[in-house]
Amino acid sequence: MSDSSYTFSRRRFLQAGAALGGAMLLPELMSSAWAAGSDAPELPVVKVGFIPLTDCAPVVMAALKGFDKKHGIILVPSKEASWAAVRDKLVSGELDAAHVLYGLLYGLELGIAGKKQAMANLMTLNRNGQAITLSADLQEKGITDAEGLKTLIASAEPGAYTFAHTFPTGTHAMWLNYWLASAGIHPFNDVRTVVVPPPQMVMNMRIGNMVGFCVGEPWNARAINDRIGFTAATSQSIFPDHPEKVLGTRRLWVEQNPNTARALTAAVLEAARWIDASDDNRRETARVLAKRAYLNTKEQYLTPRMLGEYDNGIGKRWRDAHGMRFFADGDVNYPWLSDGMWFLTQFRRWGLLKTDPDYRAVAQGINRTDIYAQAAAAAGNVALPASPLRASQLMDGSRWDGANPAAYAASFSLNRQG
After folding, report:
1. Rounded to two decimals, what is the model's pTM?
2. Are 55 and 323 in contact (CB under 8 A)?
3. Where are the alpha helices (DSSP H) in 257-350?
4. Beta bridge partners of 45
5. By three-state DSSP, how is residue 135 classified?
6. Which CATH superfamily is domain 130-238 in?
7. Residue 44: CB partners within 8 Å, gap ≥ 6?
8. How distant, in Å, are the alpha carbons of 168, 201, 203, 348 from that of 164?
9. So where are the chain's domains?
10. Among 190, 220, 317, 330, which one is most buried in terms of CB atoms within 10 A?
11. Does the keyword Nucleotide-binding apply (predicted)?
């Protein structure tokens, strides 16, 4: 390590100590399981960005529950304003890693979400738990589902109705596109779409900037509480047990800091396991996330949907069998190649990619199954799958297993392929 790098790392280390109450952190790190020898993390402090969403929980709880120190690092969560800010800070190196949209990471790798940058997915942070909200104004017109929306849109000028998602190549854009297309609504030709940061969704709907949005929790629940919208569809009703946010970073950062990457992944993996261990742990997590430093909202907006208890705001209540999951014996967290490849098929479907990429090669380059396997061993008792591909069935009956991605991408009657 150069003198300047050492000085920078030490300064961040001391800043982290001050932020955590001035505790003497060095002895704790020295006594941890991975603090010495060739396995020692290269960096003592790791700055990890997050957006105020329920699914940032594993990053936050890894720091607050001490799983980071167990693996020889100090994880410093950094609250960010938008996914564009997360992207820019990841690329510049201002953030070491981040809670980030799966599709944003892949978009950067391909140069369609910003300047092309080699990226790395260390693990999946959660499954499910997003939703599509429609406005109370639409409900007053009798529009409560995609089919009703299709009739309304067909009678209007193209682009008369505006919908919002959180990032052009992000997960929410893909869920919104898929849901609209399932009813024969073309997400690029029939409606107008805009990008809005998650915490600003409710305010923008309140003032009439859009009639629908797709975002993570707790902002769908908040729209119901504020009586400005209702849940028309959950993301898990579109793609059961879909991948959502990931722990992302630059590929160069992993290459320069492989032991730190392992330690960070192990710490966050242990936090994900702790959250999913009991409903009491989920409730505690909701209480923490509601605080000003994280989501700055009311606990009541987070807890029910974290527990899988849904109320759509217009009379339907249910216990969701595919609610937000953080661990599930590691099945959630493994960086499945097929998960990454699915986002590539949707980029191709909607013309974000003009030709078919080498789907598997791209996924293998980004999804660091090697680092994850090391982290799973460090965390202990985390199962690894026999194959890096998994099968899923989506709302329209289509089956995705990663076997023939080009054919899958071309199979949709509603598309925008170049």
Report:
1. 0.92
2. no
3. 258-276, 279-289, 299-306, 337-349
4. 74
5. strand
6. Periplasmic binding protein-like II (3.40.190.10)
7. 9, 12, 13, 25, 29, 72, 73, 74
8. 10, 8, 12, 21
9. 130-238
10. 220
11. no
